[in-house]
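Chain X:
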Amino acid sequence: MPPDKAGIIPRLDPSTGSPVNPTPAVNTLRPSACPGLLRIVQALDGGICRVKLAGGSITAAQASAVADAAQAYAGGVIEATNRANLQIRGIGADQEALIATLLAAGLGPRNAGGDDVRNLMLSPSAGIDPQMLFDTRPLADQILATLQSHPRFHELSAKFAVQLDGGEALAMLEHHHDLWLSAFVRDGQTLLAFGLAGCPGLNAPLGAVPLEQGHALVVAVLEAFLDLASPAQTRMRHLPVESVLGRLNLPLLPTDGFKRPPSGALLHLGTYPQEQKNQFYVAAIAPLGRLDSTMLKGAAQLANEYGDGTLRFTPWQGVLLPYVEKPHAVSQRLAQLGFLCSIEQPLARMIACTGSSGCGKALADTKADAVQLAALHPGHDVHLSGCPRSCAAAHTAPVTLLAVSPGHYDLYFRDPAQPGFGRLHAHNLSIEATGALLRARPRSNTDD
């Protein structure tokens, strides 16, 4: 990998994460097609700014700052992403003012080079989930600090991602990550199983370490990746697993006894008790992942009024308000703001990318088509993608519609034996034909 400005590639001590040869942080952004807070990427509908949230969490004051920035410097469109971050779309000429507003709210990285690598996903119920084996947030803070503070890790791709799973009942277990860690207990000891280029819900782990070595494991894996990867090899899936494992200088434990229980089917939607007595969280979905400034400011106000002043965004493109004592009132207010609060609402089961209204690669207006399909009550969880890149879904949905022309899609059913979207079932369907086909098909055939 390229050296830093001093001509030195810093190496980290795996036990502490500290550089063996410290060098100043590089404060320049490298070219990338991925938006960040400091890098505005242009789309058909204007600039895109991605605000990466630590563990998906944001304070009410910060959420209000995002809402104000979107209203003042963009088109007011805010997106909840499938990595539990926020995006502002439609940014105009005042990019620097928007960035300054977000930095003043404390939403930026510790240094410019660290913005791209803040890709660590937790459960939205970290620290409050009754099923959790440990509170992942302190370890996550340590990992994020290391990712941002050490220049060598700034060479990682803006898409390179890590997942830390504490065994919570509410967890996205189907999104692939370059490195995943998942807690389990053996003989009374909490261990972290880990895997590469996969996810704890689908893949077997490669080894395990004691919980207290979790940070050292992350450092060792990332160092090994950077030692081995060529400039073209930007993701863990580009390297042989054996080569990475062979570079680790940590003793690995067997994974006997690891079995990740499935995530609760609908725990990302509704009201559920927390680990803390008499406390609840309330979770809702932003329709097709989009909310406006009024919705975000309204949710922030609810967090202040009924909760602990924080919100958590979820990989289901929704929001979670923790530490609520009056959940019914919060749920009602979220619904009034325009959030989806019930699985009985068909749009709550739809995922759609930006579509041709905002993306030059999309072949159809996927969001408008999703609204039309939802009105037909198809009875399935459906992902509409404007092109094969599948930006809106990091996992394979039970049903995928891949656009082939405006208003027309190829239909796929999820099939573990088939790569990509799954098994192709029909070509060039209209939205009306898709709705009729799905209504006639039992849900159990695709959502098992």
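Chain Y:
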Amino acid sequence: MKTKILTLGMLTVLQFAAAQTGGGEFKFQNTECLSEEVRASIQKMIKANQQKLRMEGKLTSKNTLVTPLFTWPVKKSASASYNEVWSISNYVDHNAGYPNQLQDYNCGTRTYDTSGGYNHAGIDIFTWPFGWYQMDNNQAEVIAAAAGTIIAKSNGFYDRNCAFNSSNWNAVYVQHSDGSVAWYGHLKNNSLTSKSVGQSVNAGEYLGIVGSSGNSTGPHLHFEVYNSSNQLVDPYQGTCNTWPSATQSWWQVQKNYNNPKINAVSSHSGEVVLNNGCGVQESTFFKNQFNSGEGVYIYAFLSDIAVGSPVNIQLLRPDNSVAYNQSFNMPQFYTASYWYWNFIPATFNQTGNWKAQITAGGSTQLHTFSYGVLNTAEEVPEGSQIKIVSPVRDHELLIEYNGKSNQEFTMEIYSMEGKLVTSGKVHLRKGINKLPFHAPTGNYIARMTSDIYEQSFKILNY
């Protein structure tokens, strides 16, 4: 993997504060996902397991003529603060020629082949942003695209590869009711479902974590499908998918060829490093609580934004006035790109919760971070009306209140990445107030406000 820096030279700017800007493409490199020898051994393993499971009565060859309709096989975990965790680097190659004779289902070239005669046989869904960080923190889950029976599993293989090798991958293989089989490859070592060969899974059920085992240049899922006759299937229906299996799409809802989206908007204490070397976690420098005098980096991580499309950032003060507003047009088409703005301390002339708002590809994402003095539960000023008892116990948040009884407050809960988890009105009575708290385990920021009161607190949720 490598990154390319592209400075934003042509900008349409309406700005109220200065910021250093930059960014560019994040390019996911391609390699043959499986050597022919490994692929042959997998086919042999699957065939043997199928025969064994049929003899045990755990598998029928084919009990329906209806092909499965897939859901998307990658989803973000509950702990992931991003808007989305994936982008597509490659589709199935429909041109049997090689090398560099490419044609995907949509008659484009979003696929690859090799000089050795390999034509890409699946869909590569890579994690973006921070693929190694996501893998280490189990933030991108592989789920069953359709219900079926686990007919094979591979585990125990190294999962931080970045180049061609002859190693096997960690994978789960699921056979569906029509006899078709889906391969889920490159999974993180020891992340596979605890279910064993012969057990059934439902659509959407956890299978593992996106990793980089086997022939892999970085964390991604290789999703490969075969019909009941063991013929390769491209689940996408399109003009250049002329295979017999393509009479209809195999997806419940087929995604577009390009999927423009804002994967994440985040704040950082420094310039992130996306490539620290093979298998090494990125330097993320995530930060959402800034002291006065500190600079702030805002990053936008995008996927599939069309060339020429406008990208806009607005930096909003705590009173929602605009501190910074900048736009530029996407210079090229990238399956993944990153863009950053480095704001100097003088930008932040108000203390409180600031917002970075990114608009791109027809959608808008908002990220909230605090600037200035943030009073947490450990630093509640003497005489404060509110004290949050931390940590959370038994899904109950305890709030000690010493002000006017039955006072209404707006309560906002943010993740440490600055994402709004929940908000609403609460009425506090004198003494201890118990509120339900069902967020995933982790640390949070609670912001309590009224017409005359504003305070933020740190919450530990064990």
